[in-house]
Write a sequence for this structure.
């Protein structure tokens, strides 16, 4: 598994973000029964940068906590059965790993939301990564039932790695 992490802000998080990423990303893939070694990019940035990305890609001109950019088109959540039909689209030719996509997190939102919800910054970052990993595996939360499914899965992934509120 390859987890590429870039810290692109001068805002300090004071969290071992590499440990959190290395806990949650593989745990989410195991939980979702991904049958491949995978590659995920995690970018930690600030509100200004994430607002610009949010505006450019989603036409929402405000900062958000996390953005997910999946590389796979899923017909059904975590159904990886079709990816071998398009190896050149979904796999890194150098490593053979499945390219899942990018996670972009606002460090400022991690700090703000950890305080707002009364838990640690580690837990908030873990939550945002787990949430985004589910998006990279084809989940969404546009409907109430979808939101409930995602919330349950997030909670179970986090609990499995010892990240509690």
């Amino acid at each position: 598994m390859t987890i590429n992490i870039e810290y692109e802000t001068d805002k300090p998080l004071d969290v071992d973000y590499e440990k959190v990423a290395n806990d949650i990303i593989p745990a989410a893939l195991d939980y979702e029964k991904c049958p491949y070694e995978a590659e995920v990019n995690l970018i930690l940035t600030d509100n200004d940068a994430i607002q610009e990305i949010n505006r450019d890609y989603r036409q929402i001109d405000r900062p958000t906590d996390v953005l997910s950019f999946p590389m796979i088109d899923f017909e059904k959540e975590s159904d990886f059965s079709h990816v071998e039909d398009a190896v050149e689209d979904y796999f890194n030719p150098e490593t053979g790993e499945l390219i899942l996509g990018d996670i972009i997190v606002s460090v400022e939102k991690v700090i703000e939301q950890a305080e707002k919800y009364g838990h640690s910054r580690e837990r908030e970052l873990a939550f945002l990564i787990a949430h985004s990993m589910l998006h990279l595996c084809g989940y969404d939360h546009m409907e109430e039932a979808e939101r409930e499914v995602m919330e349950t899965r997030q909670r179970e992934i986090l609990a499995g790695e010892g990240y509690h509120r």
User: Anything to note?
Assistant: DSSP finds six helices and four strands in the chain. The helical segments are 17-31, 47-58, 87-90, 107-117, 121-136, 144-160. The beta strands are 2-7, 38-45, 66-70, 98-106.
